[in-house]
Automatic annotation (TrEMBL):
Gene3D superfamilies membership: Mur ligase, C-terminal domain (3.90.190.20), Mur-like, catalytic domain (3.40.1190.10), MurE/MurF, N-terminal domain (3.40.1390.10)
GO biological process, one term: peptidoglycan biosynthetic process
Protein name: UDP-N-acetylmuramoyl-tripeptide--D-alanyl-D-alanine ligase
Cell compartments where the protein resides: Cytoplasm
Limits of the Mur ligase N-terminal catalytic domain: 27-101
Keyword Nucleotide-binding attached: yes
Pfam families: Mur_ligase, Mur_ligase_C, Mur_ligase_M
EC number per UniProt: 6.3.2.10
The organism's taxonomic lineage, starting at the top: Bacteria, Bacillati, Bacillota, Bacilli, Bacillales
Residue numbers binding ATP: 113-119
Pathway involvement of the protein, from the record: Cell wall biogenesis; peptidoglycan biosynthesis
Amino acid sequence: MFEKTIKQACDMLHVHNDLTKFEDTIIKGVSIDTRKIEKGNLFVPFKGENVDGHQFVRQAIEKGAGAALWDKNVTNPPEDLPVLVVDDPLLALQSLANQYRHELDLKVVGITGSNGKTTTKDMVASLLGTKYKVHKTQGNYNNHIGLPLTILALPQDAEVAVLEMGMSGFGEIELLSEISQPDAAIITNIGESHLQDLGSREGITKAKLEIVQGLKEDGLFAYYGDEPLLQEQVKDLSLGRIETFGRSEANTIYPVTIEMNNDGSQFETSLYEGQTFFLPVLGQHNIHNALAAILIAKEFDVTVEGMKEGLKSLKLTQMRMETSLGKKGENIINDAYNASPTSMKAAIGLVSELDGVNKKILVLGDMLELGDNEEEYHLEIGRMIDPGSIQQVYTYGRLGELIAKGASERFEAENVHAFQDKKELAVMLEKQTQSGDLVLFKASRGMKLEEVIETLTN
């Protein structure tokens, strides 16, 4: 991880105060939370709407922090403490991350997209991990604060960093790309998330393509080639090396054969015909993510056997197609970390295709940040659910009720239930489910459907 003397840190930043008496103090690692301070950390305070982190600087150092940053616009920096007075602590954090990234003998893979970026991150890390010392974004540390913290936490012997890049508006991914300077970049797809902020899918495409702004001149750009909006906007970019993945044979890599079962998928690809890959994750959309990971693994000279092993041993971040067994023997799929119309349709399609189960039950909640057309998107989801493949639909939330309304156009009334109370939903599910049933949970993260899952599993 980042380790410097205070003098070295001052040389990396524009520091306004004299820290000569502290210059030999060692800083090791970075923290923004006094509850998680470790010995030697550089504490970075932020000014929020309700709380100013500067008031916790002394507490952080008393807990073992080696030093702290301090915003020059905040008065009375403590002269008895090792505080580095800078123009802006956030900009200082980002600058340190960028400089540390260049100090390391390191390759960076940047990943963005409306859906599937976390799963693709996990896949890329797993495949590259068969050959390199790989570190990846943890949890949701994929924004203007989280990504710099991820870089500054990288061990000095790290060989590859796989960094997820999220955003809610224009300019955010460009910043992350400029900080991390990726050697390879992926766009998984273009969906509807953040329509509220970006106005259209064309706007989302433009924002996601900002990932190439910091891409190395000889770096590889890989994107979902079946998306017309990406095809159109990529034409206007001056990029050296571009490869695509998807179902169409026009892509650099596409699946030649696919065989799906309840344990995962087996597939062959156009690049390695005759070689069968096993993916222990449900859903055809995840095969597309795996194709992106294979492109990156090929770029990094991972052998085909290494790719196979990386996919076979894949471990996904929680609540991404996470399977578990309920206390009655129900098969539960928890895909409730995030949701958009694209990802919800994919998840419903997956459940519809699975065999060897009793009843198939959907538990769907609100999809957030969809902008002015959010109600129509939810109605559309309900209308596309096939009663020939799905037996029961349960919804939660104000917008979820519109999914139920759409489903009611095709389902018998007793097979569609809308709830505004999670406890009532959980009680109903407990009564209705039995051994051998398959239950999919899908909603935006803010709906916290895992609380209902806990009722079925504990």
